[in-house]
């Protein structure tokens, strides 16, 4: 089966000598949701911009829907939708006009497009706001309008650069539900995020980027199993105190972050016993391992949001 | 052939965007772009003009009206392009959004050119109506004036667009253009006085400005004093337009692809 997008040795250097993306490889399947996870400055946005030909790659091969986005920019853009990280809605136009004008950029007009625009507004729960000015919308509504706009040309592939950054939990939930439905409908989705929950929930597969490189790849479950195990015992542990010896307990790894001790284990009760019963209940937490743990382990730092 | 149709359709989508925006703002826009030239017409033409004798039919009012028509169209095109482009390229990300679609920078520029022609004909046309009401047309050749107005769209929006794209760092840099390009043309392009008696070097400087050639054409059509030398003015306008247009395309291309 052909890939929706494929990259080999993909590199982008900005003058004078900043390498934003450093020889990365990926292959995105048709109809999957593929995530690029990483802290700010990891090269995610640069990668997205190369996908739709906004940035020309410095080296390597890149194909999107079988086309070269540098040489066949127009053909690629006709068949994909892009939701950029920045809010670039047209503030001089109403909500509905934003969709119509954007459709016009694709050469689409007429009653079919008006119908599609109305459908997309109700799909993104924006019905009744057709004639609002963009600036009258909340941040969450503006994001949803951006997603609706990205879908106006019925794209085969949708690129979303941090689709829910800055949204409150409810607004985020709406976007997640809709993206889930789109995936069900067979749209290939490529998204960047630095929200682990988003990646876990939406992505079939993902790569973790750091400093322009891909440091790990796989399904969210695989990554969690590989790097964090099943459970995490989180303990408040004074920053100056010695690291406890947990010999003889089934512990995979112990990480320290400030005054927190993270014990990665498949048997938290045994690990807790290994700490010698010195931990009061309010100072500890047993939880399932998450992508966040993987992420911190791989990139060596907390997320910068 | 089908490529050309695609380009036209995509340029038309840019035109349509501008037309929709205009529809929201036209009341303000008409007041700002039309009130002022009307005041000039009264102040310069009627008031000041009563002291001036040029030995031409219709007095000073008839002389200055086509000049003011050209200035009106120049301002209508220049200010809309200058500030509009800056906002679209650097402020609201309108062109960032366009750069996710099949519309190319060249098509953006072409769409804007045609839109600015539309504006020039629209606002200039209203000014022409006032001129007609005041009896300032002395020849049916004046009916060709909308063609001159249309040509002013690309002529004046090309360089204004290029400059606005260059002003990435600050909005304030836009005023170099209005003060160093627009203002000198306003005063020195034969709109308010005949240039024949000026020193030769000043005449040469005036000849270089595009507005001078527009004013010459507009005035000749108003009076019906046609001569073959007008072809030189037409050729100069065409050459300057074609020379400056690629600049805007190249700068926008650089802004939207790197």
> How much strand content do the residues of chain B show?
under 5%
**How many E strands of chain A?**
13
The geometry of chain B reads as globular
User: Quick one: biggest sheet of chain B?
Assistant: none
Distance between the termini of chain A: 37 Å
Order of strands, widest sheet of chain A: 5-6-7-3-8-9
Structural class of chain B: mainly alpha
The chain pair with the largest interface is: A-B, 29 and 27 residues
User: Number of DSSP helices of chain B?
Assistant: 9
Taken as a percent bin, the fraction of beta residues of chain A is 25-35%
Overall tally of structural domains of chain A: 2
Provide the CATH architecture of the largest domain in chain A. 3-Layer(aba) Sandwich
CATH class of the largest domain in chain A: Alpha Beta
Unreliable spans of chain B are none
* Helical proportion of chain B, percent range: over 70%
- What would you call the shape of chain A? globular
Low-pLDDT segments, ≥5 res of chain A: none
CATH topology category name of the largest domain in chain A? Rossmann fold
Number of DSSP helices of chain A?
10
Radius of gyration of chain A: 22 Å
How is this structure best described in words?
The complex is a heterodimer of chains A (about 300) and B (about 260). Chain A is of the alpha/beta class. Chain A has ten helices and 13 strands. Chain A has helices spanning about 45-50, 75-80, 95-105, 110-125, 140-150, 170-185, 195-200, 220-225, 270-275, 290-300, and strands at about 5-15, 20-30, 35, 60-65, 80-85, 155-160, 190-195, 205-210, 215-220, 230-235, 250-255, 260-265, 285-290. In chain A, α3 (about 95-105) crosses α4 (about 110-125) and α8 (about 220-225) packs across α10. With about 260 residues, chain B is an all-alpha fold. Helix content of chain B is about 75%, strand content about 0%. Chain B contains nine helices and no strands. In chain B, α2 (about 60-90) runs antiparallel to α4 and α2 (about 60-90) packs parallel to α5 (about 145-165). The longest helix of chain B is centred in the first third of the chain and has 46 residues, at about 1-45. Classes of the chains: A alpha/beta (about 300), B mainly alpha (about 260). The interface of A and B includes residues 54, 78, 87, 101 and 107 of A.
